[in-house]
């Protein structure tokens, strides 16, 4: 064991480090580097142009999304095995068909200014983006229904919520937020089209991920979907009703503010194809003004 080339010893050493897990994606993730021994990275990695006014290397720190998910799954390894045993599923046949539902959350952390500011000039507000593994289920071969083998008992607890990205930014600063979370969104999008192959309980298993943006408060949803702020006459983040309409009709509404539609409306707002006045234009796009950048699925 001792007389081995340095790189094998290095690799052996790495495997003993906490948070080190070997994994692979099939097909490989687009726009994401293939190295898997990734620690904490600069929050602006994956974004080429810099954000003005602030030293870019101080503004955000994050984990790569897929690496963080792998780490979270490995933490739940015993729970997954326990769940398989409880459901009477044969461990060795359950290697594919795992589905993981992730709840995403993002919120401002308020004022974090230094008392005697001698550090770098950074915004004095912070935002934290995090995720929670809500459930893991498996569809066994030949079975119609999926069987849930893990469910988070305290989905709203700090303890089950894993920070992915910490950033110095005001949550109302749409441009900087987009710049920092843009790469996170790109990674998430890439993961939707791929399967994670990871060793759990000594066997390689394949996982698919579904993301639900149910951890955002209203202010954040408006920010991420490019809607006017809370004082807007368009009161709802899911439908187009104005304050007046909502007070008349408390029952019949349809979900019209999906991500795709918000993007289309932003384009109309930006190009003004019908050469309308500001008021007419605003009425047409129903209060979409800043470019929406993060799909927030209205699932309860």
Features:
single chain, 300 residues, alpha+beta, 2 domains, 8 helices, 28% helix, 24% strand, RAG1_DNA-bd
Tell me about this structure.
The protein is of the alpha+beta class and about 300 residues long. It has two domains: about 210 residues, no CATH class; about 80 residues, no CATH class. Helix content is about 30%, strand content about 25%. Strands 1, 2, 3, 4, 5, 6, 7, 8 and 9 form a nine-stranded mixed β-sheet that branches. The termini are far apart. The mean pLDDT is about 85.
Structural class: alpha+beta
Question: What's the mean pLDDT score?
Answer: 85
What share of residues is helical? 25-40%
Reading the helices and strands in chain order gives: HEEEHHEEEEHEEHHHH
Q: How much of the residues is beta strand, in percent?
A: 15-25%
- From the N-terminal CA to the C-terminal CA, the straight-line distance is 54 Å
Unreliable segments (pLDDT under 50, ≥5 consecutive)? none
- The overall number of domains is 2
Radius of gyration: 22 Å
Main beta-sheet strand count, sense and barrel state: 9 strands, mixed
Pfam family, one: RAG1_ZnC2
Protein name: RAG-1
GO molecular function: double-stranded DNA endonuclease activity; histone binding; protein homodimerization activity; sequence-specific DNA binding; ubiquitin protein ligase activity; zinc ion binding
Domain V(D)J recombination-activating protein 1 pre-RNase H: 24-96
